[in-house]
Structure formats: C-alpha cells, structure tokens
Amino acid sequence: MTILELNIGQWVLILVMVQRLAELVVAKRNTKRLLANGAHEVGAGHYPLIVILHASWIAVLFYFVQTTATILWPLLGVFLVLQGVRVWVLLSLGDYWTTRIICVPDAPLITHGPYRWVRHPNYLVVIAEIAVLPLAFGLWDVAIFFSIANGLVLFWRIRLENASLSNRPQKNSISQGQDLPIN
C-alpha cells in the first residue's frame, strides 16, 4: 500500500499519530525544564504502560481501519470536539503540562480553564478518545478492550497523582493569567 492508497480513516490516524508525537516533544521539553527547576517525578513505573497502551491503540486502529471501513461521521465529529477540549487542557496547564506526573513543590493548583470544574479533565478526554475513535470506525471490540485497559492504567495513575496533589496548597490557587511559581 502506498501513501496515495490510504483511506480517510487511515489519514485521520496519521494525524492523530503526528499530534501525539508533537505532544510528546512538548511534554519532554516541559518535563526536562520542570525537573531542572526542582520538581520531581512521581510513579515513574506506570509510565511505560501508558506509552505501550497508547502506541498499541493507534497501531491496532491503523491495522483494522482498512480501505473499506465505514466511517461514522458523527462520532468522528465528537472526536474532533474532544481535540478542542484536549488543546484547552494543554493550554490551561501551559508549561506545566507533561505526560508524566511531575510534582512542583509548594506550587498551587491550577483552577482555570476546565480545571475550574473537573480535577482531571485530560483523563476524561483520553477516556472518551480511546472509546470514540474506534467506534467512529465501527470497531466496538477495540473500543471495549482499550477502554478497559486504559481504565486500569488510569486507576493506578490517578491514585498516584492525587497522592502527589494532596500536599499542594489549596489557597492561592492559580487562576487564568497568573504564572505558576517554580521553587
């Protein structure tokens, strides 16, 4: 198969892969800077599972989204809306967004953007993405399998993250337009 023979679904998956790779570059840069300024990583042991899960999800989708795949356009539209929410989450965290759990000592919590209403909005987006994109291609079994696997990994991750956040100051939380101090 050549690049010219790819169908719309496969092009969507290529765009998702490019988006995720770009996010990894930003996350790595942010992680490196935060660690250099005194932050520390929490629960590094779970991170390879997240990488394997997401890489496998995209690979399985690419394998099963054949040239004859039916696209459920409303669900693909939902996935597109989720990308907007994903960008909102990343912009709300700014230079503090990473794909790892990086704890900045004594930094107040972010309370603007989607964090005004939800403690872990990015995880809600990821939960929805992992289910919705396979469903947009009629891959119910892929959606169910990866949703369960993702749920197990996120259960572990959220417990780690909540434990690291429990020591953060609740007062003087960061609202929109303020900078998060690095100690």
Report on this structure.
The protein has a single domain (6-165), classed as Four Helix Bundle (Hemerythrin (Met), subunit A) (Up-down Bundle). Helix 3 runs antiparallel to helix 4 (121-136) and helix 4 runs antiparallel to helix 5 (140-165). It has 183 residues and is an all-alpha fold. The protein has helices at 8-36, 47-64, 73-93, 121-136, 140-165; strands spanning 40-41, 102-103. The protein has a two-stranded antiparallel ribbon with strand order 1-2. The N and C termini lie far apart (52 Å).
**Measured distance between first and last alpha carbons:** 52 Å
Radius of gyration, CA atoms, in whole angstroms: 18 Å
Tally of individual domains: 1
Global structural class: mainly alpha
Overall, the morphology is elongated
> Total strand count, please?
2
Count of helical stretches: 5
Write the layout of secondary structure elements.
Elements: H1 8-36, E1 40-41, H2 47-64, H3 73-93, E2 102-103, H4 121-136, H5 140-165
Antiparallel strand pairs: 1-2
Helix pairs in contact: 2-5, 3-4, 4-5
